[in-house]
């Protein structure tokens, strides 16, 4: 549990939402046992609704891990291309196994550090999902925002960082730099002239940003 909402409320939401099945459920169990960060249940269901409404054709994900969110996105829509970035070789190996098991051929893993990988990203995306190093979100943003189509959606996960971003009482000393950078990032996207941004206190916090005409 985090410091985002009352634990009773969080438990109720997670118990009420429909359980995943098949491979996604297997990956949730694996992630829990192996301490692998994946999107929270309530966040995934919010994104499912958004994907159904928005119906993006091309998604860029920064932070693949074991491939859970990429597989989830691909399971929500038939006609979609997903490009995801991961540098950890153990995660990459597991992600490839999981994607193959899922039977998807529309997910491409770029095996590199995110900063280096993003230098070579080309084309436009309907949706960009940030879920990598939390202290680097502004840097990632600067590198990808021009690749996000007007009318596209930027999703930033874990933006409240166990509540530490919201209040100093929750801050762990060794995380101060990450917290400061995340606060700066949230202040920027919340006040950017060409973004409409909503900060949502579910999961570990998620920001939804709609890109307007510049």
Write a concise keyword list for the protein shown above:
Rossmann fold; 214 residues; 7 strands; alpha/beta; 7-stranded mixed sheet; 8 helices; 21% strand
Topology:
Blueprint: H1 7-16, H2 22-34, H3 41-54, E1 58-62, H4 68-76, E2 81-86, H5 89-102, E3 107-111, H6 114-118, E4 125-130, H7 137-144, E5 148-157, H8 176-191, E6 195-200, E7 206-211
Parallel strand pairs: 1-2, 1-4, 2-3, 4-5
Antiparallel strand pairs: 5-7, 6-7
Task: Describe this protein's structure.
This protein is α/β, with parallel strands linked by helices. It has eight helices and seven strands; from the N terminus they run H-H-H-E-H-E-H-E-H-E-H-E-H-E-E. The protein has one domain: Vaccinia Virus protein VP39 (Rossmann fold), CATH 3.40.50.150. A seven-stranded mixed beta sheet has the order 3-2-1-4-5-7-6, sandwiched between helices. Strand 4, helix 7 and strand 5 form a beta-alpha-beta unit. Helix 3 packs parallel to helix 4. It is globular and about 45 Å long.
What's the quick description here?
It is built from 8 helices and 7 strands, in the order αααβαβαβαβαβαββ. By secondary structure, the protein is of the alpha/beta class.
């Amino acid at each position: 549990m985090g410091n985002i909402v009352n634990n009773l409320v969080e438990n109720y939401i997670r118990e009420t939402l429909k359980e995943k099945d098949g491979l996604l459920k297997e990956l949730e169990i694996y992630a829990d046992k192996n301490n692998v960060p994946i999107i929270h249940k309530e966040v995934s269901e919010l994104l499912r609704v958004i994907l159904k409404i928005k119906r993006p054709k091309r998604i860029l994900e920064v932070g693949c891990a074991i491939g859970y969110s990429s597989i989830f996105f691909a399971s929500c829509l038939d006609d979609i291309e997903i490009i995801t970035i991961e540098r950890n070789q153990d995660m990459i190996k597991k992600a490839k196994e999981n994607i193959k098991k899922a039977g998807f051929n529309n997910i491409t893993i770029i095996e590199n550090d995110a900063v280096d990988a993003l230098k070579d990203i080309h084309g436009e995306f309907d949706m960009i999902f940030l879920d990598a190093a939390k202290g680097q979100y502004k840097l990632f943003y600067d590198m990808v925002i021009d690749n996000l189509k007007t009318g596209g959606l930027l999703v930033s996960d874990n933006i409240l960082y166990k509540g530490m971003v919201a209040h100093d009482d929750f801050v762990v000393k060794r995380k101060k730099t990450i917290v400061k950078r995340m606060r700066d990032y949230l202040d920027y996207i919340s006040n950017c002239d060409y973004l409409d941004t909503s900060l949502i206190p579910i999961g570990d916090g998620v920001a939804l940003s709609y890109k307007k005409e510049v």
